[in-house]
Amino acid sequence: MKRYRSSEVWDFEMASPASSGSADVILGLDGSASDTVCVCISAAMPSFACRLDAPLPVLSRAVSGCSNHNSVGETTARETIEKVMAEALWKAGSNRSAVRAVCLALAGVNHPSDQERTHYWLRNIFPDHVKIFVENDAVAALASGTMGKLHGCVLIAGTGTIAYGFTEDGREARAAGAGPILGDWGSGYGISARALTAIMRAHDGRGPQTLLTYEILNMVRLSSPDELIGWTYADPSWARIAKLLPAVVSCAEAGDEVANKILHDSVLELSASVKAVVQRLELCGQDGKDYFPLVMVGGVLEENDSWDIGKEVIDSITKIYPGAHPVRPKVEPAVGAALLAWNNVTRKNYVSNIETDCDMLKCF
Amino acid sequence: MKRYRSSEVWDFEMASPASSGSADVILGLDGSASDTVCVCISAAMPSFACRLDAPLPVLSRAVSGCSNHNSVGETTARETIEKVMAEALWKAGSNRSAVRAVCLALAGVNHPSDQERTHYWLRNIFPDHVKIFVENDAVAALASGTMGKLHGCVLIAGTGTIAYGFTEDGREARAAGAGPILGDWGSGYGISARALTAIMRAHDGRGPQTLLTYEILNMVRLSSPDELIGWTYADPSWARIAKLLPAVVSCAEAGDEVANKILHDSVLELSASVKAVVQRLELCGQDGKDYFPLVMVGGVLEENDSWDIGKEVIDSITKIYPGAHPVRPKVEPAVGAALLAWNNVTRKNYVSNIETDCDMLKCF
């Protein structure tokens, strides 16, 4: 594999070098299956800023495309991550010499070897004193809903989907998040791929007719279901397929039975992921009624006036676990990533479980 | 898109040019989702050679990798096709000047634009007088079971799956064959991907424990289900995933419920494809009992002592359509492709429907 290293993205540092006394900063990066967001926050942020009601000192924000190495390949993923980090620093009027910590929360980080590979690469970009954290993107998403406290369960459903949970004493568990080939059927990609399949089945006589045919062909400007085959395989990006989601929701709202079944099945899938995590971690306690935050993140779960997938999932979960407390985060996962790094670097005791279980946030 | 054209594969023609009187030949090529086979037959083959009991004058045979442009991309697909055609001619001691017709039967040919693009490219390889036919690979597979007669229904289930049928008066229909994203769940790939999904679900608590975990991890030499994620996405080839099929069959034979359900579901899927084609073409006649050949092709449908997917599909079809006559072809689909071209070029009336409906075999 070619090892990507682009020095050009850092050229701005030579053009306007930061002074030796420039304020320390922390980078938080969220790399989901559809895009990559990097924020730069002040490392000098006082601890009260982490309260739920306090404004956050986000100095800058940069956005780029997908950085899931399983989707776009490792070279493109690294190129995207490096570019977006450089842009965030440039926008903040800072540079690498001021960075105290970086937390990369990435979809596609599923195994310690994924973390180690990414860390090894990052070590060539940042000086040795910079603390580096590499996590699955779900960890930052949870932190974004709890303002840094790693407790509860997060459900992400955007292009991909994953459920991830932490107990207060630092145990963790996940469900799904293995990408479309390995059964993430409740995701935006999964819903859209099932809608495309329903069109093909209606077309060749294996399935009932559906409004999806008209709606999706119209959306992608094709005239026949046969043409969908070429369209689908011409570009392997999962995010592109997932963008068909609004057409599925719109057909379901219009009463189409096929679209309704696809969305109901996605609710079952997403709920099953949350239940698996809650059960394994016993987040609901012995009596099944303990309080825990249920953080809901991603386009599939956004509030919607009529067909609200997120609300259906919440209803399904709270019926079994009345202590589940749904949270739709007010800050984005990239800020959650930055808060995780900030908590660790400043050694505040705000997130006490970080101190007690070093496995929860692996620092390289 | 880069247009591939490799002159080197034809260098052998300069080293040993064929004499002007060298015997005319026909090339038949079958490009499935897992490999590409090209045979060279004599164009002077007497018509009786097409009888089911006569030996066929196959002069040579060459094999290469996958040439489905939806799976490996158009550049690789063309490189593979050109190489395998050159090798077949070289092995037959022939060359392009002796070719009278070429029939390419390719998985991934789903639309007239796919045919036209491939034809345009082939025109740069062969002289103008060479007749060129480009078809979906299912058409050649049907012909391989009927020795050239385009009547009945073929079911292919290897890496991918498709059902394709022709009536005696030249109408045609297909079902499935749209690749894994668009729901070819009964294929070798579909079965294997569901097995991988079952492993992930057992691992994270969403599904029951299964023997598949041990069997498949052992087969791909990994120690944990988490590692399957990297393994799956490291190589996007569908054929690689489909190779897990024997492990699924072996678990089902050992009584594993999860594996058994996956195979039973694949039987339902494959049967649904055949039924859709038979119904649309009314191959079973008004009374539902008319005779028609049901040609069964591909690794998933191969005879098996215990868990025999092909037999289950046949049982399911003949229960509804008693006139369905199952055929496991004695020649391979590449020979079927060559026979289709031979029938057309020699203008024998062996396949009468080719004469009556030019749409059945589009000659460019």
Q: Can you tell me about this structure?
A:
The structure is a homodimer of 364-residue chains. The first copy, chain A, is of the alpha/beta class and 364 residues long. Chain A has two domains: 170 residues, Nucleotidyltransferase, domain 5 (2-Layer Sandwich), CATH 3.30.420; 180 residues, Nucleotidyltransferase, domain 5 (2-Layer Sandwich), CATH 3.30.420.40. Chain A contains 14 helices and ten strands. In chain A, the strands form two sheets. In chain A, strands 3-2-1-4-5 form a five-stranded mixed sheet. The longest helix of chain A is centred in the last third of the chain and has 25 residues. Chains A and B meet through strand 8, helix 6, helix 8 and helix 11 of A and strand 8, helix 6, helix 8 and helix 11 of B.
Largest sheet of chain A: 5 strands, mixed
Tell me the quaternary state.
homodimer
CATH level 1 class label of the largest domain in chain A = Alpha Beta
Order of helices and strands of chain A: HEEEHHEHEHEEEHHHHHHEHEHH
Helix content of chain A: 40-55%
Give the structure's gist in a few sentences.
Chains A, B: GO terms for molecular function: N-acetylglucosamine kinase activity. Helices cover 42% and strands 17% of the residues of chain A.
What does the secondary structure layout of this molecule look like, with pairings?
The structure is a homodimer of 364-residue chains.
Chain A: H1 12-15, E1 25-31, E2 36-42, E3 58-64, H2 69-72, H3 74-91, E4 99-106, H4 112-122, E5 131-136, H5 137-146, E6 152-157, E7 161-166, E8 172-176, H6 188-204, H7 211-220, H8 225-234, H9 238-242, H10 245-253, H11 257-281, E9 292-297, H12 309-320, E10 324-327, H13 333-345, H14 352-356
Parallel strand pairs in A: 1-4, 4-5, 6-9, 9-10
Antiparallel strand pairs in A: 1-2, 2-3, 6-7, 7-8
Helix pairs in contact in A: 5-13, 6-11, 10-11, 11-12
